[in-house]
Structures are given as C-alpha cells and as structure tokens.
Amino acid sequence: MTAAGAPEADALAAHGFAEGTPNRHPGQGTANRRFFFGNAFLEFLWVEDETEARSDVVARTRLFDRWQARGTGASPFGVCLRPGVPGEQPLFRVWNYRPPYLPEGSAIPVATNSERIDEPLLFVLPSGRRPESPGSMREITRVVIETPVAAPSGEAIALAHSRIVEWRRAATHGMLIELDRGAGGGHADLRPALPLQLRW
Q1: Using CA atoms, how far apart are residues 125 and 157, in angstroms rounded to an integer?
Q2: Which of 30, 100, 108, 192 is the most exposed place for a label (fewest CB within 10 A)?
Q3: Average pLDDT, stretch 173-181?
Q4: What does the CA dihedral 189, 193, 175, 140 come to, rounded to 10 degrees?
C-alpha cells in the first residue's frame, strides 16, 4: 500500500528495476504500479475511489482501511500465491471475493483472516500461470515479512508453508525480498519511504 500514484516506487526505478504496465481495478477503487520478475511481480497499490473501495462487495477485504492505516499499525502488505499445479488447494482457509472487474463467475480466493488489518492480505490467483509481461528475468526466491504481531492467525502461520515466505518478529512492519538467492551481492534499502528491502 502506497500514497496515491505510488511515488515511493520511483526508488525501484532508480535502482535499475524496470517498471511494467500499471493497472486499475474498476469497481474496487484501486490502481497500481507494477514491477515484473521472472516468477512474480511487485505491486504498489493505492485507493483512488473511496466509494468503490468501501462498497459492500469490497468491504470484507478491508482494502480501504488497510490503505488509510498503512502507516499507523495496519500491515501495508499483501501476498498473492499461485497454485503450483492446477487444482492445488490453498494453504489457508479462504472465501471467494468477486470484484466487479472480474468476468462473471470468476472469483479470487482470499484468506479468512482478511478482516485483520494488522496482518497482510493473503489471496490466491485462480490461475497458476507465471507473469506474462516483460520484465526482469530475476526470480523472487525468498520473502521475509517482518511483523509486530505477537499472536498471528492460523492463516498467517500457514503462509510459511509456501516454501518462499518467512515470518520474523520486529518492532514495525517490513519486508525483505530476495532475488536469485542474493547471488549478485546487490542490496537496496528503501526505508523509510517504503518498508522494503531488496537483495539480488
């Protein structure tokens, strides 16, 4: 979650990361900037239409509350997984979110802890396809989520079984993303503008 327009994302471009196409989510009230990697992408999301973001359809995701409180206790993060094989069951309990921008009959499985804004929003892509947009060939090999939450939900604990995501107790929310196991020796610390570090 970022300020409107995600000016904080300029720091990634300054470190040589290529930006992909932005996106808007009609009916959800959000928009983004995206940076694509070989196996995933990093999304910088903000609310641009408060009425849509607070609608009954979107309410259970608490997207507006997450965005509004991103610097005052809410987790500013979301983690989206994709199935390794078709039909693979999510690691956590889910409910079906049907935002207006999806085709009729489609849904996004969202973890049932979605109303806990002190934890990242967890959800699953219905498709297991890798990103198709051009971008860096580097792959995300590890994600460390730092959290001050002392008693995480079962859904959050289950995320650690994804083989890439780890939890670490910390005084504030933060995230470390490792690319290609950090083999190149590169490091970018985007704090305090973003609670994010990258190693490649």
Answers
A1: 19
A2: 192
A3: 97
A4: -60
Residue 2 inside a domain? The answer is: no
DSSP readout, 80-105? Answer: EE--SSTTPPPSS-EEEE--TTSPTT
Helix %, strand %, coil % for the chain, to 5? 15, 30, 55
The DSSP H or E segment spanning 53 is helix 50-53
* β-pair partners for 33: 44
Q: Does residue 147 lie within any of the structural domains?
A: yes
Please give the tally of structural domains in the chain: 1
Does residue 154 fall inside a structural domain? Answer: yes
**Is 1 inside a domain boundary?**
no
Q: What is the pLDDT of residues 73-119, one digit of tens each?
A: 999 999 999 988 888 899 999 999 999 999 999 999 999 999 999 99
Most confident residue range from 4-18, 56-70, 72-86, 149-163: 56-70
Q: Pairing mode, if any, of strands 165-169 and 140-147? A: parallel
pLDDT of 168 > 90? The answer is yes
Distance, in Å, from the CA atom of 44 to the CA atom of 193, rounded to the nearest integer, reads 13
Instruction: Calculate the CA 4 to chain-centre distance.
Output: 16
H or E element, residue 155: helix 154-159
Question: What 3-state DSSP class applies to 161?
Answer: helix
